[in-house]
């Protein structure tokens, strides 16, 4: 989709996994603890990482199906319970920010942006990981997949975060943007009629967007900040 680039955005909403944090090592560890109990194979982090972005149920279903293991509803539901328990016990042991993310988020806040998160990670895990990483103070709202009736790529997930931040929604009214790393994020923004930017890490290089929507780092967005734009005028 194409969109008119405004001079400023009042807010930015971010995806979490693959966009702000590399959580793949902790996700893979929780998957492997869950798999080990069932006699399923140990998986490489890179393999698991490629399936992240559609929430934990799809993560497990997609991997089990790809590996030729049982992936009926009952098996996936039991594995999901174990996975969430394992991940909750170790939410951020090995999770790290991508390069410059923390500094750049502070720069974006200082440029006048209001900040939110729209992630397919479970809501309670999202809250605890944001707290562990000290990010809870930077974001006005963060909604995980199970905090809304329909999660990404359903646009209502993103709209729910905007509404929690009291941002304008609806055609022609949007003055904020979504930043993510996968085609799921892109499809969500497109369906919501919201400008989209993609990061260069996570799954970002695989997403097909025009050059002006491709970031080299989050601080590229400072130029669209209300305070930055005012200072330039
Ligand atoms: O799929 C997940 O669990 C989370 O992914 P997201 O933060 O990239 O939406
Ligand atoms: Mg992501």
Can you tell me about this structure?
This is phosphoglycolate phosphatase. By secondary structure, the protein is α/β, with parallel strands linked by helices. The chain has 2 domains: 11-22 and 96-232, HAD superfamily/HAD-like (Rossmann fold), CATH 3.40.50.1000; 24-89, DNA polymerase, domain 1. Helix content is 41%, strand content 10%. It has 9 helices and 7 strands, in the order ββααααβαβαβαβαβα. It has a 5-stranded parallel sheet with strand order 5-4-1-6-7, sandwiched between helices. Helix 1 crosses helix 4, helix 3 (56-67) packs across helix 4 (73-89) and helix 7 (155-164) packs across helix 8. It is globular and about 55 Å long. The two termini are 30 Å apart. Bound molecules: 2-phosphoglycolic acid and magnesium ion.
What topology emerges from the helices and strands here?
Layout: E1 11-14, E2 21-22, H1 24-37, H2 45-49, H3 56-67, H4 73-89, E3 96-97, H5 101-110, E4 114-118, H6 123-132, E5 141-143, H7 155-164, E6 176-180, H8 183-192, E7 196-198, H9 226-232
Parallel strand pairs: 1-4, 1-6, 4-5, 6-7
Antiparallel strand pairs: 2-3
Helix pairs in contact: 1-4, 3-4, 7-8
Bound molecules: 2-phosphoglycolic acid and magnesium ion (MG).
Oligomer, anyone? single chain
The helix content, as a percent range, equals 40-55%
**Assigned CATH architecture of the largest domain:** 3-Layer(aba) Sandwich
The total domain count is 2
Task: Kindly name the structural category.
Answer: alpha/beta
Distance between the termini: 30 Å
CATH class of the largest domain: Alpha Beta
Q: Give me the number of helical elements.
A: 9
Order of helices and strands: EEHHHHEHEHEHEHEH
Work out the strand percent. 5-15%
Q: What is the approximate shape?
A: globular
What do we call the CATH topology of the largest domain? Rossmann fold
Mean pLDDT: 94
Low-confidence stretches at least 5 residues in length (pLDDT < 50)? none
Catalytic activity: 2-phosphoglycolate + H2O = glycolate + phosphate
Keywords: Hydrolase
EC number: 3.1.3.18
GO molecular function, one term: phosphoglycolate phosphatase activity
